[in-house]
């Protein structure tokens, strides 16, 4: 599984790809220069139950930590993962 990040000036995404197929996508919107809002997570039906959403979120956390950023999880999935994992709360806004 490869997680690819595409970052633009105002928006971005993390995309999970396996064997050339898009397994999932997590989109975000920049809220200033120090934080981004995860606003949507979607996993392809063929990949449900494989932890794809969790892998994309952990890539977002890794990116936030490496770049001293904060995350606002407005997406219900992302918020639920943050609620269950206090070890990643350091990047919460």
Automatic annotation (TrEMBL):
GO terms for molecular function: acyltransferase activity. Keywords: Acyltransferase, Transferase. InterPro entries: Acyl_CoA_acyltransferase, Gcn5-rel_NAT, GNAT_dom, GNAT_YJDJ. It holds the Pfam family Acetyltransf_CG. Its EC number is 2.3.1.-. Residues 1-93, 6-93 form the N-acetyltransferase domain. The keyword Ion transport does not apply. This is GNAT family N-acetyltransferase. Coiled coil: none annotated. PANTHER family: BSR4717 PROTEIN, PROTEIN NATD1.
């Amino acid at each position: 599984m490869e997680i690819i990040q595409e970052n633009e000036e105002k928006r971005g995404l993390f995309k999970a790809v396996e064997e050339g197929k898009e397994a999932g996508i997590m989109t975000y919107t920049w809220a200033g220069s120090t934080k981004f809002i995860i606003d949507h997570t979607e996993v392809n039906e063929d990949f449900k139950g494989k932890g794809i959403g969790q892998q994309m979120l952990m890539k977002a956390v890794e990116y936030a930590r490496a770049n001293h950023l904060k995350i606002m999880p407005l997406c219900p999935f992302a918020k639920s993962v943050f609620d269950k994992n206090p070890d990643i709360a350091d990047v919460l806004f």
